[in-house]
Design brief:
224 residues, mainly alpha
Length: 224
């Protein structure tokens, strides 16, 4: 059981540590990051129930992958972040959105990973780490980046919408690839993950640039 727990949560903890330590200016209180991670863990249980209900209605597998998978998961992660930390005093720079979103998402991914490995064994742990766990982290980077933009620019509604829409689109594409079979799966998933990492790391860089721009010029956060 110890090996199972370690294999299930180690990728999530490693990725969370990576993005947490990427904060160049002011690291977030660890207690808040841990709290968001726990919220993500607890979020698995109501989502699983809702997914079973949705899946009983959606007999077409690709529609199930988009609505019961991507939409439900990204919406509830977004909901938790928005209502528990978006207005918190510690959310005081754009990169903070990435940290908190990644914490919630990797809490969710770690619990989901534990349940999956419990049912299917440890032999696929490395595949789970490379695909679903890192995928959840990178969807969250995009979500957190636009939440940071929403908080620190005047176009709040636009960026709040994008903070949900873009992760949903990326997650839907990811799920659709996983739902496909044979050569399509092999030929698409690896380049997709490389592109996803490129998108995520670019959003990290852009969030840091917004903070640097604000600190150096004292003109508020960028509008682009």
């Amino acid at each position: 059981m110890f090996s199972l727990i370690t294999a299930a949560i180690a990728p999530g903890i490693a990725l969370l540590s990576y993005f947490y330590l990427k904060d160049k200016y002011e690291m977030e209180p660890l207690r808040l990051v841990v709290r968001q991670f726990i919220f993500g863990v607890l979020l698995v249980f109501p989502i699983v129930v809702l997914q079973r209900v949705f899946s009983s209605w959606l007999t077409f597998p690709y529609l199930d992958a988009i609505l019961a998978g991507a939409l439900l998961e990204e919406f509830f992660k977004w909901f938790i972040i928005y209502y528990t930390v978006f207005t918190h005093v510690e959310f005081d720079e754009p990169y903070d959105g990435i940290v908190y979103a990644v914490a919630v998402s990797l809490g969710f991914a770690s619990m989901e990973n534990f349940i999956y490995l419990l049912n299917n064994g440890l032999s696929i742990a490395w595949i789970r780490a490379f695909l679903p766990v890192s995928g959840h982290a990178l969807f969250a980077v995009v979500m957190g980046y636009y939440l940071g933009k929403a908080k620190f620019t005047t176009r709040k509604k636009k960026f709040l919408l994008l903070s949900l829409l873009y992760p949903f689109i990326l997650h839907s594409m990811f799920n659709l690839i996983l739902t496909s079979n044979g050569i399509w799966y092999i030929s698409l998933i690896i380049p997709f993950m490389f592109v996803l990492w490129w998108i995520g790391l670019r959003r990290v860089k852009m969030a840091h640039h917004m903070v640097y721009h604000a600190n150096s010029k004292n003109m508020g956060f960028g509008q682009d």
